[in-house]
Amino acid sequence: MTDIAGTFTLGDRRVNRMGYGAMQLAGPGVFGPPADRGAAIAVLREAVASGVNHIDTSDFYGPHVTNHLIREALHPYPHDLVIVTKIGAVRGEDGSWNEASAPAELERAVHDNLRNLGLDVLEVVNFRVMGHGLSERSIEAPFSALAELQRRGLIRHLGVSNATAAQVAEARGIAEVVCVQNEYNLAHRDDDGLIDALAAAGIAYVPFFPLGGFTPLQSSALSAVAVELGATPMQVALAWLLHRAPNVLLIPGTSSVGHLRENLAAVGLGLPAEVVARLDAIGTS
């Protein structure tokens, strides 16, 4: 992977802005094991071999599946690899996503991540605010519990996920926040103001569903630009995100080595100003 995308600070580490999200390595619905464990291992190893040094995961992917895969594929970890996890949920036996934000639940989740990843300390832990869409409620109690785990030396850095601007501010009043992970892509632009504010503060913004998630982005304007540039629509969407702000760190996920290589190639895709303007209009139309 070339370094055209540059780097940005994540905690006290500098990472390449094109990373990898492990969610899709679990089974259907992010539940259960992958259909092809060997293929999942190969994707992780290819990502790191290609220059990825920021991997996003969670112990509620599977559950436990992606963390076990990461450990099997990459441990002992390269010195420059930053593994970011998130807590605040557990999975039901039916695959449901259930909130788990009580102090004891958060501490158990931290220890689960440490054990399953084979780490003594977690580099970055995001507190995931549960609920469909963004819910404006206080996160003081759970984030304070995480800050205490940080003081105990189990976590180096903290972040928040699926959080409103007010919740981000609330968290920053409790402990240093090094990253915010929210839904954001060409068509979903609610966080435009937050991204710029975080950039000014030197805080990383990590969009999840950068390609639309379970319903991939569909846009005639995006497709037209892709044809003009000789790229795929998804490569253009990723390149636009890299262009959007210097603090944007990408974690597109895939369970295919071929698709991984396509995603990583987006760092070399230049976007002329007039193309950026056309793409910008997708989210405001």
Concise description?
It is built from ten helices and eleven strands. By secondary structure, it is of the alpha/beta class. Strands 3-4-5-8-9-10-11 form a seven-stranded parallel β-sheet.
Main features:
7-stranded parallel β-sheet; TIM Barrel; about 280 residues
Walk me through the structure.
There is one protein chain. The chain has 285 residues and is of the alpha/beta class. It has a single domain (7-211, 245-254), classed as Alpha-Beta Barrel (TIM Barrel), CATH 3.20.20. The protein contains 10 helices and 11 strands. It is globular, with a radius of gyration of 18 Å.
- Roughly how many Å apart are the termini? 34 Å
Radius of gyration: 18 Å
Low-confidence spans: pLDDT under 50, at least 5 residues? none
CATH top level label: Alpha Beta
Helical percent range?
A: 25-40%
Q: Determine the number of helices (DSSP H or I, runs of at least 4 residues).
A: 10
List the helices and strands and how they pair.
Elements: E1 7-10, E2 13-16, E3 20-21, H1 37-49, E4 54-56, H2 65-74, E5 82-87, E6 89-91, E7 97-99, H3 103-117, E8 122-128, H4 140-151, E9 155-161, H5 165-172, E10 177-183, H6 192-201, E11 204-208, H7 220-229, H8 233-244, H9 257-265, H10 273-280
Parallel strand pairs: 3-4, 4-5, 5-8, 8-9, 9-10, 10-11
Antiparallel strand pairs: 1-2, 6-7
Helix pairs in contact: 1-2, 3-4, 7-8
